Amino acid sequence: MKKLVLTAFVILFGVVLVACGGTTTTAAPTTAAPTTEEPIVVQGVTDTTIKVGNAASTTGAGAGVGVPFNAGIQAYFEYINSQGGIDGRTIQFVTYDDETDPTKGLTYTERLIEEDEVFALVGHFGTWTVGATLELIQEVGVPMVYAATGINSLYFQESVGNPVLAVQPIYKTDGRIMTARAIKEAVYGANHDEALPAGAKIGVIYTNDDVGLSIKAGIEQEAELLGKSADIVYQAVTTSYATAVTILKASGVSAVILAMNQEPFGYSLQQMHNLALNVPVFSSYVNADVTYVNHTLYNEARPIYVNAWLDLLDPAGVSGLHQDYWDYYGIISTGSYAQYALNNFAIAGYMAAYIFVEGLKRVEAAEVELTWDNYIAQMESEVLDIPMGGMVDWTNGKRWGIAEMSMLQYTYIAGDNPLTTDVVETDYLYESFAKVREIETIEEIEGK
To answer: For the stretch 123-145, what's the b/e string if a residue is b when 16 or more beta carbons lie within 10 angstroms of its beta carbon?
Structure first.
């Protein structure tokens, strides 16, 4: 597929499309020789609307993330539209359920680009669909703002004008940070306040897919940088998580890094529980959700740590949010969205929509035409601050994603419900991931 060119048949019919106005004018026929100059490319923009979309799982294995994620996007666009839109244009959001199937994800992405003619893909969802469509996106040139994954194929060292505008930490970066923390953080010993013992081994269980292999690449890089390559024990899993855990336990590992996403994360914890492998666990920011940690697996001798790039627990981070977040919150906390008001994945959806809109505001402020090239250029013009999440830097063609994260620890409280006055005792349960380290760069962690 070639990059979409909306001036097809111009020589024969003299039809010229005015990108931002969505109107057509008739030009005099010409017999001039065709030019090789790249035309301005844009679609999905009229005088009053901007059409964007995504393919996201609202059924299938990814639905637990996809449903609240899309709710966050939709609620924020509704808020923006209630304020009159951007530069007089409201935002139309088109979404399809890819059912956590890469083939369907590719089909729907093609439909969004070719039939729906979206201006941008916002919140492009899931490793399966993102991985299957990156080549198409770059060939066409349609902006892709925020990928709900961190696969390493999103990483580019220098790529000015690249339509891929990833935000979440790339899994390679994620793997480096969790490895640096497994080696450098004082979380060992009976009180979880001692350094990693000299010569200690660290086990890695990874899934043999884009997620696991992408994280593993970061683990390998960081282990080499910190001189620990010889002390890392790797185990790939497909179906037998018990075998992987058994081998790591026999190897005498002092910590385990779980390089995988949500469901395999839960399976691995289950087998560590079953086989009494009681050592600290480190994992990805995608697993910062108690839904995938059965509280019956909790063991004080096996603390669970995950990275986090959104810092919802930092008062400075929350106060740094723009007022429109709180206005947006007023929308998502009512009606059909109410159940997702405090959902981490819905907040990630808010981030995707917020960042896309920030790009539109930059184009408006620069007083340039809203085209793909101009939108991408404005996103590359300066660093963009992420509410509660540091910053993302696309300048000079950087496509690294966020490279600084905090660390959370799973917490579990059980016992009598302190809110009940009943004579009969009532079980009380509270699960969360609580912050135990502030947002830090890899270099700051390495220096500990």
So the answer is: bbbbbbbbbbbbeebbebbbbbb
